[in-house]
Every structure is written in C-alpha cells, then in structure tokens.
Write a structure and sequence with these properties.
Number of helices: 3
Helix content: under 10%
Structural class: mainly beta
Number of strands: 33
Radius of gyration: 22 Å
Largest sheet: 4 strands, antiparallel
Distance between the termini: 30 Å
C-alpha cells in the first residue's frame, strides 16, 4: 500500500484549480468529471505509462481555464514518448508541445524548459516563461525559474537566486544562495547556512538565524533551530515554542501541533483549539482536516467534530470539494459530505497500481505535513 501513498502525497500539493473539472483516466484517456461523477470532458490524449502523473502537483488540474497535461504520444507501432502541452476546458490545445517541459499556468504565465544550442549543438537547458497565447513572454535565460507568486517569480542565474516581475525585469537581483517564493509578502532566503526572510524590496526583515523555515500563512511561519520547533510572527518575534515536538504551517487559521506523541491544533490566537488526541493529523483544507484515529483515517471540522468517519487506510486533503480516500478494496474520490463520486479502481488506474508501476517510497509524515520550503 505504500506505493499508492505517492498518489496521495502528490495530491496534497496540487495547486488551486478549476472547480468541477476533476481529473481521471477513462479507458486510457485523460478525462474530467464533475461533482456528480459524470464525464464532462474526454480529451484525445492518452496516459498509460505512469499513473502517478495523474495526481502530479504540476499536471492535469485546471486553473484559470488552463491545464498543463503530460501525455503519451505513440510513434511507429511499438514506441511512444511523453509530451507536454496546455489545454483549455474544451480540450483544445492552447500551448503546443514544443518544449522539453511546461509548468502550470500561474498568474498568466507558465515556465518552459528549452534546449540551448549553438550551431546546432546542444550545450544545456534553460528556463523561461510562456503566456496562454503560446508566445514566449520572458526569454529562457535562467538555470531555474519558479512559478509566479504574488507578482514575482524566483529565478536562478549563475548559481544565485533573485526575483523578476512578469516583464522579466529584476526586482531583486540574484544574490542569495537559495530562496522560497513569496507568501504574504515575505520570502525565505538562505544566507550562509541560515535562513531568514526578505520583503519584496529585497531587504532582510527577519535576520537569518534558523536551520529550517516554513512559509508565512495567517501571519505566522514555522521555524526550526537546534531541533526546536517555534512559530514566529511577521516581525520575527517568537510567539509559540513547542520545544522538540512538531508544529506545522498554518492553513485556514490552524496549525497542527504535537504533544506527547499525539496531534491536535492551535488557532491564530496560539491557543489549543482542538486537543492533541490523534495519532496523526493533517492541515485544514476547505474546512476539513484528515486525522488518524487508531489505525484509520477520517475527517474533522474546525470544531473538532468528526464529519467523515475514520474508515480509510489513506486520505488526501480536500481540493475543489473533493478528496481521495482508500481502503483495502477501493480508492475513490469523495465530496465534502463523504459521498463517493468516482471509483478509481474501475478504470485504467487499477492495473497501474496493482502492477507496481507507481514508485514505492517512504514518506516522513512531519516533513510532508509542515509545508517547509527548503529551496
């Protein structure tokens, strides 16, 4: 079952997407269903080589009426290659598969990866950005380029990290060893071997003194120093100390905390709102959080009331009113009421899972749940 967990982990990081366009694979084709489980779009694109792509954090989900998809393109009779393009909600191609890689559209732009060539000889690869009109808006001149966030994108050039605007102009010139994208107006940066935070002018507003940091949400960020978990505010002031026990990045006004090997939640007043009594607990998403009671997962609301009974071996966070759950015999999409929408074992996903084509990995619960951005 651990191999199936990769699907759930990937689903946790899928960005906000188009409501009621829920990705499935039907008869080998990338398709989309609505909240009733009806197929509302069946594309001409096949995906057969790896089911993990179905729930990748970069592919298939619609956002602003555009979805980046990776699909199998067969040539000759027995061979195929994978291509990437961007489609609209009618299944029509917005951005042709002319690039080595295409990211998800974010704030009107998507990352692209191209081959660098001189006199026809390939000598490396570079990142840039393309718009929905299939035109390169920011030339591919970077070693790496992140999705746009809050009007700025993190880029790496000559080993240093900086930030550009949507015109490709440097707002913060590359000078940091590493950095996160901006969240609530602040981005973490690595100076020496310690993390701090900068504002959008590039000024350091929280001194680099932490071994690890999360991103700001609800006005707070999780930090770790000497194996001690803390929460700081936007002024860099220590507001919550959880000693060497885990605490997670805030989501929807709540943070997962650990007390005596059990998990609960604090709210933005930094007081315990749901007592630590669960074996594990995930972040809140769309008003619900997955919690593990004994050996099974279910969902609670922000009052700590169980709204979907703990009867699943695995669960994901809710996104666009759906979550993925699994027990011994089934894996389904469910809605916020716990009703089944689509049985993933009734289509092509079954074979991929049972044949072991999904990578088998161990996942550390704490690092997966906290939302740290190390790079």
């Amino acid at each position: 079952m651990r191999s199936v967990f990769l699907i759930f982990l990937s689903f946790l990081f899928i960005s906000a997407s188009q409501p009621n366009f829920i990705p499935v694979i039907d008869d080998g084709f990338i398709s989309y269903i609505n909240m009733n489980g009806d197929i509302i779009l069946k594309t001409r694109f096949k995906l057969e080589t790896s089911i993990k792509e179905m729930f990748s954090n970069q592919f298939l989900r619609f956002k602003n009426n555009a979805a980046t998809i990776k699909y199998d393109d067969k040539f000759l009779k027995y061979f195929s290659t994978q291509e990437i393009c961007i489609i609209d909600t009618l299944g029509e191609v917005l951005v042709d598969p002319n690039y080595l890689w295409i990211g998800q559209m974010q704030e009107g732009l998507a990352q692209i990866l191209v081959s660098n060539r001189f006199l026809g000889i390939k000598y490396g690869e570079s990142y840039g950005y393309i718009n929905q009109k299939d035109s390169i808006q920011i030339p591919p001149i970077y070693t790496y380029a992140a999705p746009f966030s809050e009007g700025l994108a993190k880029v790496i050039k000559r080993g240093k990290t900086g930030f550009i605007n949507n015109k490709g102009e440097y707002v913060i010139r590359p000078k940091f060893k590493s950095a996160s994208s901006f969240s609530e107006g602040l981005a973490s940066v690595l100076v020496g071997n310690k993390y701090g935070f900068i504002d959008k002018s590039g000024q350091i507003v929280i001194k680099p003194k932490y071994g690890q940091v999360g991103f700001f949400n609800s006005g707070y960020a999780v930090t770790m120093k000497d194996s001690v978990y803390n929460i700081i505010n936007r002024d860099g002031e220590l507001v919550f100390n959880n000693s060497k026990q885990f605490c997670g990045t805030f989501s929807e006004g709540y943070s997962v905390i650990e007390k005596d090997s059990l998990f609960g939640y604090i709210d933005t007043t930094l007081n315990i709102s749901i007592s630590p009594k669960y074996k594990y607990a995930r972040k809140f998403s769309q008003g619900l959080a997955a919690v593990k009671i004994d050996s099974m997962w279910g969902y609670i609301n922000t009052q700590g009331k169980i709204v979907i009974e703990p009867r699943y071996l695995m669960t994901s966070d809710f996104k666009d009113d759906v979550a993925i759950v699994a027990d011994v015999n089934e894996m389904n999409y469910i809605n916020l009421s716990g009703d089944k929408i689509w049985n993933l074992f009734e289509n092509d996903t079954t074979n991929f899972i049972l044949n072991g084509n999904v990578i088998d990995i161990e996942v550390d619960f704490k690092s997966e749940n906290v939302g740290y951005r190390w790079k």
